[in-house]
Amino acid sequence: MPSDGTIGYLVGKLEVLRVECPTCGRRGRYLVARLVAGLGPHTRLTDWLNVLTSDCPQKHQQGVTRACGATIPDLVGLP
Question: Please, which residues have CB within 8 angstroms of residue 21's CB and are 6 or more apart in sequence?
């Protein structure tokens, strides 16, 4: 996770942010500049990811043993 955990922290570090879920196979690519413009630089990445995955078929099933596994792989290695 970036040092302050916000979308604005990614400006100048990444142009595109990838989201992948190995559980269901969903994936997407999001322009950081567009995220900042639409959500604001102080939006927390965890809050954004939670909203983004709110319609995940694995997220709200009763008795499910495989929960939503969405990750942001581009954050690995960022200071």
Answer: 27, 53, 56, 58, 68, 69, 70, 71
Distance CA 55, CA 14 (A): 26
pTM for the structure as a whole: 0.83
Tokens encoding 28? 């997407």
User: pLDDT digit of tens for each residue in the chain (79 aa)?
Assistant: 447 899 999 999 999 999 998 888 889 999 999 999 999 999 999 999 999 988 887 776 666 566 788 999 999 888 8
Domain that holds residue 49: 8-75
Domain count for the chain: 1
Q: Please, where are the H alpha helices in the chain? A: 32-39, 45-52
